[in-house]
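Appendix C reproduces, verbatim, an entry submitted by the partner laboratory led by Prof. M.T., so that reviewers can inspect both the input and the predicted structure.
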Amino acid sequence: MTRPMQAAILPALAAALFFSLAALASQRGELSEIKRLSQNEYRADVAHMLVSDPEYLRRLEESSRPNALVTVTAYNADPAQTDSDPDIAASLRRVKPGTIAVSRDLFDRGWVFGRKVRLEGLGIYEINDLMAARHNRAVDIFIHSNSQALAFGKRRIKAALLNI
């Protein structure tokens, strides 16, 4: 093979190698995304089984008081305030205005995903997310704007779990 011919083939081979490595890296990323999704789907299936089990729901109804005095704050989809995917709530649905996160103690008392809560003076919200384990008797309202969430502050409000 002549030198000019080698000089023409080497850049083509380098480009082919580069694109092959890029394709492999992309496939690796897709595989890790599939693995993450399958773990989340498993969690969602377990949560759905718990929420759709009539006996479990009956016991929750009996043991839970529908009204509570809660601490209400606001949050937004900021990675510093959430996990690695800030737009996806613990219910595996997108966060959006009109939804709230509840503390785990309320969740354990039947304040589960999809249920509606009336916050006195603020309106009716749907439970879509969970708060960090350190919170008790607390509700976090989703607000898109960080400045509005900060301006909301911290309030003690009567909350009622609705049967709608």
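The first strand starts at residue 67 and ends at 75. Additional entries are available on request from the coordinating office.
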